[in-house]
Amino acid sequence: MYLGIGTDIIKISRIEKFIDNNKDQARDIILAPNERNVKNTQSIAGKYAVKEALLKALGIGFSKGIKRLSEIEVIKDSLGKPTVITYGEVKKIIKRKNIKNIQVSISHDAEYAIAFVICQ
Predict the structure, then answer these.
(1) Which among 37, 41, 57, 109 is most buried, taking Cβ atoms within 10 Å?
(2) Would you list the DSSP string of the chain?
(3) C-alpha–C-alpha distance, residues 90 and 12, integer Å
(4) Nearest Cα to Cα of residue 119 among 89, 83, 88, 87
(5) DSSP strand pairing (4-11 vs 72-76)
(6) Angstrom distance (rounded) from CA 74 to CA 103
(7) What is the pLDDT along the chain (120 residues), one digit of tens a residue?
(8) Domains of the chain and any CATH numbers
(9) How far apart are CA 37 and CA 72, in angstroms?
(10) Are 105 and 115 in contact (CB under 8 A)?
(11) What torsion do the CA atoms of 7, 119, 52, 64 make, to the nearest 10 degrees?
(12) Angle value at C-alpha 12, between 81 and 48, nearest 5 degrees
């Protein structure tokens, strides 16, 4: 049973500008502690899109989730398939909504990153 779906698209140059304007804080805002070594802006934009899509799927969206981006970690399994690990309030929301599985898809090209999330 589907309990939520979310999608997000972000212009990669927007993430570059955010990082340039917020130097030290940008990675702390967007990335979970275990992701902060990521340097590639396309990868950071993809992770951002996943997090935004997950917040939408959970029904809390970005406006109520800004402080929660770092509670979502985007990882890849041994085959390169993306998935998420959640912490804090996001993890509590997932448990409260009885979500057992989260499917993630990410894609990007030179200008945009897009993500799609399904909560089951």
Answers:
(1) 57
(2) ---EEEEEEEEHHHHHHHHHHTHHHHHHHHS-GGGTT---HHHHHHHHHHHHHHHHHTT-TTTTTGGGGGGEEEEE-TTS-EEEEE-HHHHHHHHHTT---EEEEEEE-SSEEEEEEEE-
(3) 25
(4) 83
(5) unpaired
(6) 12
(7) 788 999 999 999 999 999 899 877 888 888 999 998 888 999 999 999 999 999 999 998 766 656 778 999 999 999 999 999 999 989 999 999 999 999 999 999 989 999 999 999
(8) 4-119 (3.90.470.20)
(9) 15
(10) yes
(11) 130
(12) 50
Residue 49, token pair as written in the block: 């899109």
Structure tokens at 97: 């909504």
According to the model, what pLDDT value does residue 1 have? 79
